[in-house]
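Quarterly update from the structural biology core.
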Amino acid sequence: LLAIRRGTQEVLFFNRELELFDSIKVAQCHDAHGIEAVDDKLYCLSTSTNEVIEVDLNTKSVTNVFKDLIRPYPPSPRHQPHVNTIEKIGKHLYIMAHRDHVEDKACVYQFDPTQEHAVRWAGNLGMYSHSLLEHQNQIWTCDSQGLKVFSIQNPKENCIEIAPNNMWARGLAVDDFFYIGLSAASCRAQRH
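Predicted structure, tokenized:
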């Protein structure tokens, strides 16, 4: 189990008993939001710089910093997107970005670190969407402000509305059921 300790630039490693057994300091990662381990690499999203930091898990050193992967569409100086979620699904890495569209909608990019390239894979995914996961051969996300969970490939038919007022959907997990994390809305200043 991996966790990022916000504000410290530290990735924490826990065993199955949830005991801390190791950590890595990733000094280049600012306002970290997402991490994903793939083989012997760790990918950390630096939200404030819009970069993906690649760390070698064996040497605990930064091996690459991917810049300029996410750009507003269409180009706009008013809309500055930021990376939020990274997830390996199948053989691909996917990155969720907020405010990547002129209507402030979230978008998902398919990211290939070997090519140092990201391709816009899906767009118009709701306000401040969080989480990406595979379920029944489809990729699901939660629209935090819109309070719904949906399949990116088929959002009209596969959509779950969430009822709580004054809450945001921020986390998502699935086995036989969907588990949805809810939290009160907060501005960036309240979270730091």
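The chain has one helix and 17 strands.
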